[in-house]
Specification:
This protein is α/β, with parallel strands linked by helices. About 55% of the residues lie in helices and about 10% in strands. It starts with 7 loop residues before the first strand and ends with a strand.
Length: about 280
């Protein structure tokens, strides 16, 4: 897999420079060490990627239009087996989400909720994730911040999923609920080793071998996830990054899983003539 390991990279093309930061969205004390190294780099940059304003706009719109997170079709108790719905209802209750509300929510949103274990729910993890810390540092240094995509992009990303694919992803999330705390630790440790791609392959394997899920349906759902949530967004980000880099050195920060692979940000930049070099903090 191209660029399979590593979270921090430097891209150069002529006089243009981009520092690429693969982030971990949740809080972790080890981010402080990363920021101690990254702070001076941000201070010297012309622009940084990802925008707090975009995130605030998304939260505002969801608060004003909660129906954006609700399904139009059958409720989840109708779509899931009694056993799965009971497990999901309990998992949501453990996270402070009433089951009657979860019954109408879109499966992708519930999968995202279940990705954070109950032991981490009392804290707004995103407030101290690496993305947020990069934004805060850029703001402190007066470095302009520009979003890589419109704030509401995520709301339409799952429109291409079939009901069966949505259910398969949710079923896989429910199946790992009993080990969600362990899974969170595994995810964090993989990230800080620079093994985000390995973690993705591990997640694929677990989803495709989850009892009660047809492996072909799971594979189709995961392929659609790769295509829409990762690959398509990567391609959309390249012109934004290159346009910003034309005006001066840039820091581009986004989830680490967007870095590797033949359709990853690094390979796409390399195909456009950029020289890619790993950075060791």
């Amino acid at each position: 897999m191209p660029f399979a390991r590593g979270n921090f990279w430097l891209a150069r093309r002529g006089a243009e420079t981009v520092t690429l930061i693969g982030t971990f969205h949740l809080d972790d004390s080890r981010h402080s060490q990363t920021m101690a190294w990254l702070d001076p780099t941000i201070a010297r940059r012309h622009r940084a990627g990802r925008s707090a304003q975009e995130e605030a706009a998304l939260k505002k719109r969801l608060a004003e239009e909660p129906d954006l997170l609700l399904s139009d079709g059958p409720t989840l108790p109708e779509r899931l087996s009694p056993q799965d719905w009971s497990a999901l209802a309990q998992a949501l209750t453990d996270r402070g989400v009433p089951a009657f509300m979860g019954a109408r929510m879109k499966p992708w949103y519930l999968s995202a909720i279940l990705a954070v274990p109950p032991c981490m729910m009392p804290v707004d993890q995103g407030m101290n994730g690496l993305d947020a810390r990069v934004i805060n540092a850029a703001t402190a240094y007066g470095v302009p911040v520009k979003a890589l995509e419109p704030y509401d992009t995520i709301l339409g990303l799952f429109d291409g999923f079939t009901p069966d694919e949505e259910t398969a992803l949710l079923h896989a999330a429910i199946a790992t609920e009993g080990t969600s705390g362990d899974e969170a630790v595994t995810t964090a440790e993989a990230y800080f080793r620079g093994d985000s791609q390995l973690l993705w392959e591990y997640s694929r394997l677990k989803a495709m071998t989850t009892p009660g899920i047809d492996p072909a349906t799971a594979a189709a759902a995961l392929d659609e996830t790769q295509k829409t949530l990762i690959d398509a967004r990567n391609r959309g980000w390249i012109p934004i990054i290159e346009e910003a880099a034309a005006d001066g050195p840039v820091v581009a920060a986004f989830g680490a899983l967007h870095l590797p692979g033949p359709a990853g940000v690094l390979a796409l930049l390399q195909a456009n003539g950029w020289t890619i070099t790993p950075i060791t903090p």
